[in-house]
């Protein structure tokens, strides 16, 4: 496993074969995938127009890693601020407040149903919500959905509280077929969450 910056450099390296650059992008999305790996991957493919035949648009890989890197650059400083505060709390023998932990809370259980905006816009809303304590869905700025899946954008803030695992029983085979098509960039039409 390499680091995100090392993998991102490989995505941008025009000397590397396209297939390897795609795998490096996969590595980046595994390292930082705000919607979970599969939904983040689908987002990157659709939003940046990564074609089935990579030769048709090699630069789409760069657009995708730029979008992901921009969102990560917004998010990482939040973790650093928290880590600093936690160290001060520890030194003062104060118990850190778990509510202070920055949490993305953007997991999308259905890979094809996720916010459509640029990732940095959504991460910006997560940060705003965390800072102000305001209650809204960070995925779409709609009403806050504390339990279950947001019907507008597909975000599930607390997957541990999802009553039913995704995909639901009986749809697993179908979900795997659809994932294969997403991975190969033969995109089937989007589906709403079950
Ligand atoms: Zn939403």
TrEMBL record:
Region (Disordered): 166-194
Segments of skewed composition (Basic and acidic residues): 171-180
Protein name according to UniProt: Uncharacterized protein
């Amino acid at each position: 496993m390499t680091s995100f910056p090392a993998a991102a450099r490989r995505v941008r390296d025009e000397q590397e074969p396209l297939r390897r650059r795609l795998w490096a992008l996969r590595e980046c999305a595994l390292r930082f995938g705000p919607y979970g790996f599969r939904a983040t991957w689908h987002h990157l493919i659709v939003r940046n127009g990564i074609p089935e035949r990579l030769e048709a648009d090699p630069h789409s890989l760069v657009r995708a890693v730029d979008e992901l890197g921009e969102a990560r650059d917004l998010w990482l400083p939040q973790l650093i601020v928290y880590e600093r505060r936690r160290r001060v709390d520890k030194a003062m023998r104060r118990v850190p407040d778990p509510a202070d932990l920055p949490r993305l809370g953007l997991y999308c259980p259905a890979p094809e149903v996720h916010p459509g905006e640029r990732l940095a816009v959504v991460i910006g809303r997560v940060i705003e919500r965390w800072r102000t304590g305001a209650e809204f869905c960070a995925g779409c700025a709609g009403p806050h959905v504390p339990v279950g899946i947001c019907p507008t954008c597909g975000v599930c803030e607390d997957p541990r509280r999802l009553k039913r695992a995704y995909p639901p029983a009986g749809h697993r085979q179908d979900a795997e077929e659809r994932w294969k098509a997403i991975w190969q960039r033969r995109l089937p039409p989007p589906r709403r969450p079950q």
